[in-house]
Amino acid sequence: MKVTVEASARLHLGFYNFLEDNIVYGSIGISIEVPKVIVTASPSEGSSLTVLNKTNIDADDVVNNVIKRVHNSLNIEIPGLKISIVEAIPRHAGLGSTTQMSLAIGMAIMKLLNKPIKVRELAVMLGRGRDSGIGIAAFEHGGFIIDSGRRLPPNAIFVEPPKNINDLPYPIFRAKVPNDWLFLIFIPKQRKGLDETSERKVMDVPSPVPRELKYELYKLLLLYLMPSITMNDIKAFGRTITKLQVLVGQYFSKYQGGTYCCDETEFVINSLLKHGAYGAGQSSWGPTAYGIVKGQKQAAKLLTNVKKDIEKKGYDMVYFITKAQNKGALIKVSSS
Length: 336
Hints:
By secondary structure, the protein is an alpha+beta fold.
């Protein structure tokens, strides 16, 4: 028996809330076709764990954490496993790699153990969804997603790990992204976003924001962002995302040294907008930058122009064009 799980990366487009009435955060995101994680799991002899990593992306900590949490949650000895990582999402790049890898490996193992489990139950088991529910919803359904944020207990000071599925951020709006909306992705090779340890220092104690900023974020979400994707209005969607990202970046500027994480990311965002992207921003903590366009012709032209700007600056980046992923993870069980 072999289980194969394929899950896509996600762009985290920012927060529309930070702290209000004991509700923290509230995320906006889009699942994209590439990059993706593909893992396979099958039984092996004895009780040993064999990990075959066919990528150049280190994932040992993720695999070990998933095995430990499954063992502790089920309170059973896990039989021998062979786990193969066929493709992986770059780590600490703002693309949700840890959540997608964890859920993919966890789901494969649960299938092998013949333990039926829902994605959100697995997420709690693996400690995902502490600040954002976008990665979980992307694994479940894909598409454009807005989540509810976390409901904290009265007088809570710290954002603690979810204890059950009702404690997770829940999708409150989801829409399919039009097939001709394309995303240009740029990942600076010499930069990394915050890792999960550093992130905790920022996210565990959220700060209230001025009433004017809260109102502006709510207005952007309700009056412009949600209607624009429903009406297939990429221009309005792009303008709104760009403005929202600037506001969110300003909130986090004291932690990342500016509105964006680094000079390379800011340069690419400005280049994308200069050359005709409808919207652009930084995914999560970066350093991934993205731009939004319509149609392959416009995407190719924009990519060419931005590449020229990057080459003049001497920046070393990975870049590609991708569509949104409007479906959740693919799980396949085969006899061999």
